[in-house]
């Protein structure tokens, strides 16, 4: 059976096209995209259709901490004091909680136009540090949340062995994350049964703090070729300085010099790079994973985007700690951070392209798709039927010329203009509501109540 949708305006790889007929198969993959088509009888028609965005960096459980870390401590607060709070939060979470939080988070991501997520997953063990009888238990509960919401997912089990450079032993509050290369390869193997057009499995050395170069080399040797590899690279100045003290090199230079980088790599929080590192990254074909709202929330710093884009560097966006679940907000703050820093306007430009919003959206699609290792990110034959429909009846989009549509969406107002969202050929959001929202919300509410009790108990 053929499934069809007609869009009077659709965002194709070369930009806006008119009267586009999309057709996909029973598995939810597009097999035909035709411009200037005549709408067949009885086919659903939409006005403004875009490919769904890829959220390339997520720690799903942190969604439940949103807003709980904004109270000042006794000394100056930093990424590192935030991390202590996050560890305390992670201590009590059960696999069922993880599934409920993930479903809520992913439903919110879908409502804002993300149709794929890369889950950087590091809570592997039970609170006492023992493995669950099935090693992949926690990761599989996250996959359950993804399935309930309908989002496409790249699961990245995280290699986490050390507390800092030079193989410093983990602290007690990191014991749920503890994993060896063999553990991660076993996890990747167990998770393999879930691989499909909706689910990919890669791996993620947490950082050069938590995984040594030797371990990463071993992990790469054991991984199936071409599966995505993600790592946190240079989020904090302290981390960069610790790396220099340990090795004489900055983190990205160390990783690149020892192992090389290639398009299978995503470097999350490439915040603090030297000019040479930035140039190397841009030329390597790897993706810079940028998470502007979290990086702002944690006081990380700003990535030097204009120099990177001028060198044709690839990037995508992620919601990371989920203080925002909207690609609009990530892209807006990506550009605004640069404007505030350089005191100029219209900065994030692809060479030869003048429209900031169009370039940001398209580049984030390309980089995000590459990071996911899945066939997503554009409306083309062979890709997933993952798309969003903008609310053409919203005043921000009244009477909009093609050249202005994305800018009016990304750079004006706070209403969510995403009205409908389809993943793998199935509608998951209709008229702004997720199709499973009542059940997902009820589970999330019960989870928060339980977590609150557990925290009070522990206090
Ligand atoms: Zn992260």
Could you characterize the architecture of this molecule?
This protein has 459 residues and is an alpha/beta fold. It has 14 helices and 17 strands. Strands 3-2-1-4-14-15-16-17 form an 8-stranded mixed β-sheet, covered by helices on one side. Strands 5, 6, 7, 8 and 9 form a 5-stranded parallel β-sheet that branches. A hairpin with a 5-residue loop joins β2 and β3. The longest helix has 22 residues. It is globular and about 65 Å long. The N and C termini lie far apart (57 Å). The mean pLDDT is 95. Bound molecules: zinc ion. Zinc ion binds next to loops. The site of zinc ion has 6 residues, from loops.
Short key terms for the protein model shown above:
459 residues; alpha/beta; binds zinc ion
What is the number of E strands?
17
Largest sheet: 8 strands, mixed
Task: Catalogue the ligands.
Answer: zinc ion
Helicity range = 25-40%
Separation, N- and C-terminal Cα atoms? 57 Å
Order of strands in the sheet with the most strands?
3-2-1-4-14-15-16-17
């Amino acid at each position: 059976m053929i499934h069809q949708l007609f869009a009077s305006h659709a965002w194709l790889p070369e930009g806006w096209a008119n009267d586009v007929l999309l057709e996909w198969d029973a598995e939810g993959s597009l097999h035909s995209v035709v411009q200037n088509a005549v709408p067949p009888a009885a086919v659903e028609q939409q006005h403004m259709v875009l490919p769904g965005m890829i959220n390339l960096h997520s720690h799903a459980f942190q969604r439940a901490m949103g807003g709980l870390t904004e109270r000042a401590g006794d000394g100056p607060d930093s990424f590192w004091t935030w991390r202590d709070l996050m560890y305390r939060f992670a201590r009590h979470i059960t696999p069922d909680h993880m599934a409920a939080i993930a479903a809520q988070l992913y439903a919110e991501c879908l409502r804002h136009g993300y149709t794929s997520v890369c889950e950087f997953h590091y809570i592997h063990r039970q609170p006492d540090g023992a493995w669950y009888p099935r090693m992949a238990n926690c990761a599989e509960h996250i996959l359950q949340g993804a399935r309930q919401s309908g989002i496409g997912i790249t699961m990245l089990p995280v290699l986490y062995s050390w507390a800092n450079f030079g193989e410093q032993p983990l602290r007690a509050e990191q014991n749920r994350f503890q994993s060896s290369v063999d553990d991660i390869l076993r996890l990747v193997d167990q998770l393999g049964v879930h691989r499909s057009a909706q689910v990919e499995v890669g791996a993620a050395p947490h950082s050069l703090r938590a995984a040594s170069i030797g371990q990463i080399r071993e992990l790469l040797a054991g991984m199936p070729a071409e599966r995505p590899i993600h790592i946190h690279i240079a989020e904090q100045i302290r981390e960069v300085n610790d790396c220099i003290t340990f090795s004489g090199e900055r983190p990205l230079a160390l990783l690149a010099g020892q192992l090389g980088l290639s398009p299978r790599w995503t470097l999350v929080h490439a915040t603090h790079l030297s000019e040479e590192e930035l140039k190397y990254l841009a030329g390597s074909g790897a993706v810079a994973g940028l998470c502007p709202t979290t990086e702002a929330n944690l006081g990380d710093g700003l990535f030097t985007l204009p120099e990177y884009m001028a060198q044709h560097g690839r990037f995508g966006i992620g919601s990371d700690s989920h203080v925002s679940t909207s690609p609009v907000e990530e892209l807006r703050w990506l550009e605004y951070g640069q404007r505030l820093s350089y005191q100029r306007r219209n900065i994030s430009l692809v060479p030869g392209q003048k429209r900031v919003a169009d370039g940001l959206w398209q580049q984030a699609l390309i980089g995000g798709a590459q990071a996911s290792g899945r066939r997503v990110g554009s409306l083309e034959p062979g890709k997933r039927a993952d798309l969003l429909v903008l609310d053409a009846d919203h005043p921000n989009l009244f009477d909009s010329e093609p050249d202005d549509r994305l800018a009016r969406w990304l750079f004006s107002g706070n209403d969510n203009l995403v009205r409908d969202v389809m993943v793998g050929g199935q509608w998951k959001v209709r008229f702004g509501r997720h199709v499973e929202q009542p059940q997902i919300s009820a589970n999330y509410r019960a989870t928060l109540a339980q977590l609150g009790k557990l925290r009070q108990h522990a206090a």
